Amino acid sequence: MNEFKMIDFACDLEPLLFDAEEQLMCHFDSDAVAAFLASRGIESIGSVELLVHYLKESPLCDETSALSARVVLAENIVPSGTSLPVKKEKIRYRGQVWVIHRYDKDPFPSSPHAHNYDLDLKMHLGNGGLYRGKGLLSTVRPKHLLEFRERVKHVVLPPLEVG
Question: Does the pLDDT of residue 12 top 90, yes or no?
């Protein structure tokens, strides 16, 4: 399973994970669950019961992820304007999907940078450089870079390097 499909799989698991966490009293990271399931050749899960079955077999629930309690509120109590960390943001722009990981381990070509997994590209979010591996292939037009950056809502971008 390629990384783009893995991200979609992890997103698809999110609604099921809430109920699975309730049953198992354990918190799970959707990316880790998707990787665990994919390693066993599983690319989709149709029910919470099936997900719980696989999670019981996994090493993903240990004492560090055990839940003591979960509180569900009818309304959001976090004041608007509160800065919240986001692990990743998915941007759809001009028919393409770009993913920005908030805590990407690789700071090249910028920190953060955007991934287009379909095209195997990384985009420098300061100057629009397009990279495959460490090689610069091209640069997006400044107009498109500015439009792209305007769509990013949850990640702090590097300084703009174009005029």
Answer: no
Integer Cα distance of 89 and 70 in angstroms: 26
Other CB atoms within a 10 A radius of the CB of residue 30 amount to: 17
Task: Output the six-digit token pair for 105.
Answer: 């381990």
Of 130, 103, 6, 22, which is closest to residue 67 (Cα–Cα)?
A: 22
**Could you read off the pLDDT of 53-94 as tens digits, one per residue?**
999 988 888 755 665 555 555 666 556 765 544 555 566 666
| Cα–Cα–Cα angle for 31, 91, 115, rounded to 5 degrees | 65
Q: Cβ contacts of residue 87 below 8 Å, gap of 6+?
A: 101, 102, 103
| Per-residue tokens: 93 | 């722009």
- Of residues 29 and 40, more confidence is placed in 40
pLDDT > 70: percent of the chain: 78
User: What are residue 157's DSSP bridge partners?
Assistant: none
Backbone CA torsion sign across 101, 104, 106, 108: positive
| Residues making up the chain, counted from first to last | 163
